[in-house]
Amino acid sequence: MAEAAPGAQRTPAAAQSRPARVRQWFGRAASDGHERHTLALLGKSTLAAAVSWVIAHDVMAAQSPAFAPFSAVLIMQVTVYQSLVQALRYVGAVAVGVGLQGVLGLLAGPHLLTFVLVTLAALAIGRWRPLGSQGSQVATAAFFAFSTYVAATSDAQRWSQLGQIIVLVLIGCGIGVVVNTLVLPPLRYRSAEYGIHTLARSLCDLVGDMYQALREGKLEGERTQHWRRRAAHLTPIAQQAQSSVHTAWESTLYNPRRLLRRHRHRTSFDGYQAVVDALERVTHQVGSLTRSLDQWHDAAVNRDHVDFVRAYGDFLASLARIAELLSQIDEDQLRDQTQELCEAATEAQQCRARLEDEAQAGALPLGDPAQPYGILMAEASRLTDEFQHTCDVLKHGVDEAGATSAAPAAGSEHD
Question: What is the pTM of this model?
Fold first, then answer.
């Protein structure tokens, strides 16, 4: 009956009508989330394409004006930095593709052999690593250039139209970068926190299940195998968290919004990066821990064994508390949260010390490599050190941010 309740709660949401789901989606778009960023990207892409079309079609009267809006939409990225990088790569790819057609067309003429040579060269150059994901545009530009070259009636017209393609691409990319920079430039400070929230919550849920079972002495094979599978699933979550922090840092590059007063003294992403790095290492250590427990589920039970398992459960409970606090991290409340984290880390150190005392006081074979006790104690030390390091890094970042924001105020008072 307990398992049926969650399913019963999920049924109404699944049965909702499409109009209701659409209304909910636009309701979520009012907050600073994925839906809002999606709407902003759609609006900016439409604006950049429209401006590019007006310039290419109405002002320049270009023969192929679609190149401009296509380029503007193509380089509209989630960060200003990526828009600049992709624009440079795309312009380079198009220039190479058009240049290939121009040179080989001049040497061999508008024939099938020329098309084959242009295709071969464009596909080979498109694999050049600096072009990145825009490498395929070398061949695309070369094909359009060949079509334009064949349709032209004179060499002067051919060179003029090939040059126009490059000019249209430059206009589209330039407008796209300008729109992305000046119109709601994406500033993803919160994405770093979201990545940490997801990873820390997953760790908290897993460790929470483990310590409750250890306290009750429940180490059945099916249970420990389930822990092991869940620990393996933490690796892609850690990778997503790394990507979230990188995107947050990248969104500040060349972004005019960071010059605003409310964004000037943001906590450094170095602290968030250190947190994700530490949590990623914790996922590996938790994986090793679950493997040891999975291999140990059929161990012989005695009094010392039962006491050690319960003490280890108490130790894991202290780590689950730290993971829970990290899953609620909020830059606006980081000063108070770091204080709680430091207190929780100190408590975890004390739990590990008690665990070591109890293990040494008993008759457990800590030095026997065939037994898991020594491995579990080593993992306890590593886990505690990682969480302590995480708390120290966050506290250092908060202290530095406070000192930086206080310095201008002191200077203004002095003036």
Answer: 0.59
